[in-house]
Amino acid sequence: MITNKALPRRTFLRGMGTAVALPFLDAMTPAIAATRRASPPVRMAFVYVPNGIIMDGWNPDYEGTLAALPRILKPMEPLRQDITLLGNLTHNTGRALLDGAGDHGRCCASYLTGVQPRKTVIDIKSGVSFDQIVANQVGKQTRFPSLELGMEDARQAGDCDSGYSCAYTNNLAWKSETQPLPPVLDPRALFERLFGNGMALTPEARARQNLYRRSILDYVTDDTRKLESDLGPTDRRKLDEYLSSIREIERQIQKAETDNAQIDPHMEKPYGIPADFAEHFKLMTDMMTVAFQSDLTRVITFLVTHEGTSRTYREIDIPDGHHPLTHHRNQPDLIEKVTQINTYHLRQFAAWIAKMKSIREGDGSLLDNCMIVYGAGLSDGNRHLHEDLPTLIAGRGGNHFKPGRRIVYRRETPMCNLYLAMMDRMGVHVEHFGDSTGRLDVLDLA
Amino acid sequence: MYYRTIAPLEPDAVRLLLSTIAIVLPLAAADYDSAVKPVLSQTCALCHNDKLSSGGLNIKAFLAPDSVTAYRDGWEAILQKLRAGEMPPKGIPRPPEAQLQALVHYVEGEFEKADRNTKPDPGHVTARRLNRSEYSNTIRDLLAVDFRAERDFPTDDSGYGFDNIADVLTISPVLMEKYLDAAESIASRAMGADPLPKKPIEAQYHTKDKTVRRVDLSTIEASHRVEWDGEYVVRVGMPGERTADAKPVTLGFWMDGTLLKTLPVETKPSTLVYFDPYSEAEVRVYLPAGDHVFRAAFIDDDFVKTLPEKDAYSSKKNKFLNSIVFVGPYPSDVERASRKKILICDPNSGQACVRKILTALSRRAYRRPPTPEELASLMKFVSLARSRGGSPEQGIQLAIEAMLVTPQFLFRIEHDPNPTDRQDVHRISDYELASRLSYFLWSSMPDDELLNLAGDQKLHEPAVLDGQVRRMLADKRASAFAANFAGQWLEIRNLDVVKPDPDKFPEWGPELRDAMKTETRMFFEYVLRENRPLSDFIDARYTFLNARLAKFYGIAGVSGPDFRRVDLSGGQRGGLLSQASVLTVSSYPTRTSVVLRGKYVLNNILGSEIPPPPPDVPALDESAVGTLMSLRQQMEKHRADPMCASCHNKMDPLGFGLENYNAIGKWRTEDGKFPVDASGTLPSGKSFQTPDEMRALLMSVLPQFSRCLTEKMLTYALGRGLQPYDRRTVDGIERDLAAEGYHFQSLIFEIVHSAPFQMGRGDGDAKPKEIAQR
Questions:
Q1: SS3 at position B410
Q2: Which of A162, A168, A234, A322 to mutate to test the interface with B (most CBs of B within 10 A)?
């Protein structure tokens, strides 16, 4: 170390697209592990994949106890005692319902909100997503009420889906009905968000920084209130958003002063966005693991890629765009390619779940105390179907779920019923959400 | 754009409404009954009726005279179809042309009448947060600090195809965190407060540990975070040697796609006796802090193309690139530009100077003079830092940090005297006008000249204003207009996202991609700066090429890495639609799509929006193209279905006209085993055989293109979507442009002169409910 700003030399030697193994994961955990609690908290995460899934490769031909899994789910087989497959969950609000085309935009925007989004490229409107309802309540106990992650940069030009604003496909979490929360894509940015920017500040310097920041925040809060007094309603709405973000940061600073989770300045940081999909996925999920483990947050949404994405998968020799492929018109060669992409995604997911399972917490594993949903807003991407959405939950939600099963519900059971059940697990009791008709039963320990 | 509202389809309500108004307007009714009604009920109603509602239109709502004003958007859409000759379609008996003309004429007349009777409405622009490129540019012009918000901040959402639309630019907590971090780091960099390390640090990137990516045989890239602003020595390692008669090559060194340095490199065997030949080239450059992608490449390296692939990395057969080493930072001899900009007096001389510095800075940061209260608050930060043992400079640094997170800096807020009164239409202040101008043409803050003219309240004077627009267009900052407006209008930004299949398109790579971007950017800038007619966009007989792109296009006589204007002949290329950038972003990774390209032309050139396909329509089978059937055979099959035909008849011919260009824009005459057939017939009945002929046909609809461009540019300039009341502005601009010959700068002047650009109004809650078109 030459100055407090310098990175260790070996960090310099690493470049984009190369393996960054993140040894920090294990190294740092003791440094930031939160104080031991009698009963560990329940956490939840959503991992969203776009363009539907080839359902023939997803749905087993049986119900009940999980045995051999179909092709796409094969990577989960070693973990089948830890997962629950839910059949026939439906998002009716993703359907057209007189709004015409735009299933991709709609299914993503309604996925966690249970609300049919307004068809518009401007004045976007969806609903508060249920993860944010949870975050508003349980998030006060952690430094970050929730984390929003993603892996794909937003398309920068053009329209996103048949008259639906790109905001609908670029985001999964909605803080208010007009304010989506953009995902962080860059592992390094995520790292710095979670653990600070790595400057080894002395306690005095950190105290001074916090003092300065707080006085700046105080000032701009005051100032904005004055400014607002002579503005019209839409301008005021913009500044209200600004103010609510300021308050959020104030809370974070306060929380950071007490929770003491600080980066070890020698820790290795990820560098930029790796070109390799699996590498990127691993970096993001590694940090999700640490965030859960050290109780920096209890709510994470992870938008793997966007609905309608044309991302290619050269890593597995698929040069075609994902979305065009999913309109396979039942041609076997195209279905095969989509199946391979679906399976590839599950392989990455399985590796993460295995990691979560390997971490001890309380009497069981970290995974046991989580509910990690892997799902998509469409089942058949070719025909844009919104019923029987592929839905998998990993973990036991704190010893509440009895995994290792496939449960097939009545046709057209609202996805929001699952959300009500999950909110219960998170200690947030809500009677109704989106188009829910009740709580998912059967899920709990029999 | 603003044709989105359409008549509601509740027949009872409509009938009720119509009967009331018919009584009020008996005179108009007579004309309507003779000129309009017969065509509607005898021709249009055959398909657009209760049962079929073809294209989502039921003509019933338009069967009364008052509908012309009540459902203006629907009527505009109907007129558009009639003018373009698209309706009635083939197979439906066509009324005499004179009757159709009479209808169009009558409705246009009614529109004009209605316009004369309503007060013009300039609309209200919501407080606009700076987007990422505006933030970066503003920081550059305010403090002379190179900051890349594009890399650090989350992506800005876009609306109407642009990412500067006030209503969709939100602030999330993540972004707020970024603003705070950025403010701290920018203020520190601006003041030069971070001490440089005492000794320079070396960072190596090498192919052998895979920290360097081989982009192609003569190009390598490495991502490197520059930790401090400063000078660095960069060494590029080049093992190997070529044949004795090999010519020297030019080594180029780029940061983030910008060429920083070139130097000649000898490649033939040196006279020294080596065991392992190796040489290094060294450049000394100033690098701004941040994450950057560095590239080193031999430019126009013809030698490697003569080599068998196995020899490409043999040091006996070839000289190639394998490493980049950064050594630094070294202090720069020159005082930082940022410090010169900020420290206009010696802050150690006392409070008066500190106040002077902060007054000048905040006036530029807030783009208007600070209020005494604002200034006092900034001064408090200086005292705060001083009370904690900081120097006056550190106090200023803290004040800058605060300034950069205020809403005054982050937002462009316009103040209306009566903020909730929609009727209170007024001229915006000169300071507000200065910002509207500078963010329109420079995507950045107003400079001193604009601010001074605003301070003197002279900026709005027509002669002064025009002079400033001329000056701004000549300024190099106007490149931002090309990058941001054209980059989004033409979707060129997506070149960074698309991933053409390297097996099918081995030529694709960063060098070619950047060349494509540069061509379109320079072409756009040329049309802008030289005030060329808009028709150049359709069919210019020139473009901008370097050796790489010229070779790709098969155009001889262009050498070297620099772009220059090249005259085109032979009909293969001409205008935007033959530029590889446009052709690539409108293709799939593995192949072309006539539908995507047709839609691209309709949306971006002709301004006609294609409704999405109705649900349950079988998707088009484009993938068997080139193997089982020719593309055209497939498409013809598809279009035999009348449901598909109405839109695909519009889209597909335009896409077919571009079939001579493959999915990355290279000229071709065969697609798979089938010869390319680039002929097509537009819905108007006009037909073409080649892309050149298609361009000629497009020239005949120049007014339509002009309108499309005007609407997009007005949207971009105002930062809001166009509303029905903006139609009058667009009509006026089109009239003036037609009269003066459609010059590009005239369009810009017209927009600057327009009421929505110079006026504002309050914004009450009484927003009329719009019914979105399904």
A1: helix
A2: A234
CA distance B610 to chain A (A): 9
- B411/A320 Cβ within 8 A: no
- Residue identified by tokens 């920068």 is A156
A120 and A443 Cβ atoms separated by less than 8 Å: no
Question: Is residue B218 within 8 Å of residue B268, measured between CB atoms?
Answer: no
Residue B100 CA neighbour count, 13 Å, CB half: 18
Best B157, B169, B291, B620 member to test A by mutation, with max A CBs in 10 Å, is B157
**DSSP β-bridge partners for residue A313:** A318
Query: What is chain B's Cα-based Rg?
Result: 30
- Averaged pLDDT, groups of 10, chain B, 774 residues long: 40 40 42 84 84 77 83 82 75 82 85 80 92 96 91 84 89 91 92 81 85 86 87 92 88 90 87 73 89 89 84 88 91 80 93 96 97 95 93 95 96 91 92 98 97 97 97 95 94 89 89 93 95 96 94 91 90 94 94 90 86 57 55 72 74 91 94 86 85 92 94 96 88 94 96 96 60 32
Query: What are the pLDDT digits (tens) for A112-147?
Result: 999 999 887 777 888 999 999 999 999 888 989 999
What's the DSSP call for residue B316? T
Q: Dump pLDDT digits (tens) for A336-362.
A: 999 999 999 999 999 999 999 999 888
Residue range A69-110, pLDDT digits in tens: 999 999 999 999 999 999 999 999 999 887 778 899 999 999
CB contact at 8 A, A374 and A281: no
Cα radius of gyration (chain A): 22
Q: Which residues contact A80 (CB under 8 A, 6 or more apart)?
A: A66, A67, A69, A404
Any CB–CB contact under 8 A between B382 and chain A?
no
Of B154, B384, B416, the CB nearest to A215: B384
Q: Which residues of A touch B613 (CB under 8 A)?
A: 101
Residues of A whose CB is below 8 A from B194: 5
Three-state SS sequence of B36-102:
CHHHHHHCHHHCCCCCCCHHHCCHHHHCCCCHHHHCHHHHHHHHHHHHCCCCCCCCCCCCCHHHHHH
B158 to A166: CB separation less than 8 angstroms, yes or no: yes
Name the residue in chain B with its Cα closest to that of A239: B407
DSSP conformation class of A274:
-
Nearest to B459 by CA among B424, B441, B439, B435: B435
Rounded Cα–Cα distance for residues B726 and B712 (Å): 12
Best residue in A95, A140, A194, A219 for a mutation probing chain B (most B CBs within 10 Å): A219
Contact status of A321 with chain B (Cβ, < 8 Å):
yes
* B172 → closest Cβ in A185, A224, A245: A245
Residue B30 confidence (pLDDT): 52
Of B175, B211, B227, the CB nearest to A13: B211
- From CA B137, how far away is CA B147, in angstroms rounded? 8
Judging contacts by C-beta atoms under 8 Å, the chain B residues touching residue A208 are 388
> Residues near B145 by Cβ (< 8 Å), separated by ≥ 6?
B139, B186, B189, B190, B229, B288, B338
**Between A391 and B288, whose confidence is greater?**
A391
Query: Across the interface, do A182 and B175 touch by the CB < 8 Å criterion?
Result: yes
